[in-house]
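Subject: complex prediction, re-run

Hi both,

The earlier run crashed halfway through, so I resubmitted it with identical inputs.
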Amino acid sequence: AAGVIQSPRHLIKEKRETATLKCYPIPRHDTVYWYQQGPGQDPQFLISFYEKMQSDKGSIPDRFSAQQFSDYHSELNMSSLELGDSALYFCASSSDQNTGELFFGEGSRLTVL
Amino acid sequence: SQQGEEDPQALSIQEGENATMNCSYKTSINNLQWYRQNSGRGLVHLILIRSNEREKHSGRLRVTLDTSKKSSSLLITASRAADTASYFCATSQETSGSRLTFGEGTQLTVNP
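This time it finished cleanly. Structure:
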């Protein structure tokens, strides 16, 4: 079965650089979520999109932005990177038809040097 | 964690033993879910229990929910070395739509 696809899997950037992460949700899933997980931490909700519109916003820094495109893939853009942005970034998708569970991708590991 | 705590933070047991992990939360919920995460990998959904349910089973997993105490427990019976992972509870809150808020996780190690 198709899963959530994230790219790149690993990314190394310097401070003050910009990074873009991509997420391809499970086909026919209408909601995409972005989470950030620091080392040894629980996943923290950043932002979500429902039918290509922002539906909810969490602890996402102003330096970050995200959008969902017409083909339902989503991108998380991170600018002016800081050392503290080093983390695993997960995308998840869900469907109104589901019971409420989220399906997570394997994550993108961002390292800021 | 913004939502609650899990205990224990780390648990080490022998294969064949049972593992119990607890989760507490702070707000009214629609449902509570448990996820598993192998080191550096994505989270995998294990089981969901709705706010009007008290107990649910799935294979070797048993989940309980006590909404009066705002707590849940996950029991893994007859553990296997392959169960070694981090386990997170996550809540869907009445005031937060479909997003999930995760607890701090329990690192389970099952020794062969």
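Chain B has a mean pLDDT of 92.

- K.
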